[in-house]
């Protein structure tokens, strides 16, 4: 088989590039928001299951 040279790049207009960058930034913000929501949900579940102790109790337990 002969190896054919392939072009790995495409050309797009500056406006399209800026639009895609903006879209990418919005998706990153959205996924960051989802991660925060999931962390909050997990933390609330841990509190419900008494897996978390308050800072005050921890400090008293450590003698601080």
Written overview of the protein:
It contains two helices and no strands. With 64 residues, it is mostly helical. The model has no long low-confidence stretch (mean pLDDT 86).
The helix/strand series, from N terminus to C terminus, equals HH
Number of strands: 0
Structural class: mainly alpha
Query: Which stretches are low in confidence, meaning pLDDT under 50 for 5 or more residues running?
Result: none
Number of helices: 2
Strand content: under 5%
- Gap between N and C termini: 74 Å
* Average of pLDDT: 86
In a nutshell, what does this entry contain?
This protein is 67% helix and 0% strand. The chain is mainly alpha-helical.
